[in-house]
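Anyone up for a design puzzle?
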């Protein structure tokens, strides 16, 4: 398996995976509608501009490039936005993914790695959360991804699609070489928000809720470095090649940090004592979301290299400083 089409490859996670694919010597083609992507983030392969729901364009690309597999990152990812504009999420994340799969199968491409999310679990009843946990998303973003997971099962059964869904936990950090990183001007994610506050882009960082049933009252999340996640994609591709069947894996380290612990580490790394304000809970936040990652470690032999909050925040900080100067 050497030819890889990457949808959303000009975005945050996709571009890190493209970098790793390029370094490993894969032939890459990036397909991105550039709604959130940046051309400079694509370090390997050609970049074709288009939406995954455009069956004509996707067909043309599949015929010309003839990939062995598609890695599908292209999606909208903002929970709040999905609550206010669910149609946008169901259309782009669900319907357009269905169109992509249909076009792939029509063109004889039957391998897919799908970017799923821990949001499919909603508020988990058991922690750390295992892949078998019921899918019970609590917002349209998580629901839009859950629908795809359900479709994948049926399509795989009936039409021979081979797929892996990777359920990402809290992806953070940047390329340790600092060539690429998260390039959103506005981000609602904790680490990016904290670093932008340290940089002076925001006056203060708000902590959403200090009365959760956790050790310091703030929410716990499993932060995973984006390059470890990228490596998981390479292993998933190899697995799909060897076993030729569908599967689902959590992508997290299996332990979490509270919001306060993240904020303290961000202050330590940046050496900026930025202003923090404790406010009410944000709607729809589960108190704790931590992966049981034993399956991916066992079956894909995934060996994370950057399971270190300080390193995650350091790489994000180096990138954040560089990004503003671009
Ligand atoms: N959070 C916060 N302040 C912020 C952004 C996030 O307190 O400015 C909290 C949020 O409530 C959650 C955790 O940080 O408990 C992680 O949020 P993020 O948006 O980064 O990821 P999510 O877990 O929602 O996907």
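Challenge accepted. My sequence:
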């Amino acid at each position: 398996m050497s030819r890889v089409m990457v949808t959303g490859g000009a975005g945050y996670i996709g571009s890190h995976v493209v970098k790793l694919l390029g370094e490993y010597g894969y032939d890459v083609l990036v397909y991105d509608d550039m709604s959130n992507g940046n051309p400079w983030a694509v370090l390997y392969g050609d970049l074709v501009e288009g939406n995954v729901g455009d069956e004509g364009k996707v067909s043309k690309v599949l015929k010309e490039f003839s990939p062995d597999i598609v890695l599908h990152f292209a999606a909208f990812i903002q929970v709040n936005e999905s609550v206010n504009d669910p149609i946008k999420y169901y259309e782009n994340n669900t319907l357009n993914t269905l169109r992509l799969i249909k076009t792939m199968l029509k063109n004889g491409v039957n391998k897919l790695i799908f970017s799923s999310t821990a949001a499919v679990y909603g508020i988990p009843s058991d922690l750390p959360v295992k892949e078998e946990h019921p899918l019970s998303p609590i917002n349209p973003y998580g629901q839009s991804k859950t629908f795809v997971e359900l479709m994948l099962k049926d399509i795989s059964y009936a039409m021979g699609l081979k797929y892996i869904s990777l359920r990402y936990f809290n992806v953070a950090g940047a390329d340790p070489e600092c060539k690429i990183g998260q390039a959103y001007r506005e981000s609602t994610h904790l680490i990016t928000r904290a670093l932008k506050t340290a940089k002076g882009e925001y006056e203060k960082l708000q902590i959403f809720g200090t009365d959760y049933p956790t050790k310091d009252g703030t929410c716990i999340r499993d932060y995973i470095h984006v390059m470890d996640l990228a490596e998981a994609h390479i292993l998933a591709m190899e697995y799909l090649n060897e076993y030729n069947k569908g599967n689902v894996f959590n992508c997290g380290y299996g332990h979490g940090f509270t919001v306060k612990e993240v904020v303290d580490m961000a202050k330590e790394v940046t050496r900026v004592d930025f202003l923090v304000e404790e406010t009410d809970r944000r709607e729809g936040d589960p108190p704790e979301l931590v992966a049981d990652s034993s399956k991916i470690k066992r079956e894909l032999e995934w060996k994370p290299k950057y399971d270190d909050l300080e390193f995650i925040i350091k790489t994000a900080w180096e990138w954040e400083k560089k990004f503003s100067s671009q």
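A detail worth pointing out: The two ends are 36 Å apart (CA to CA).
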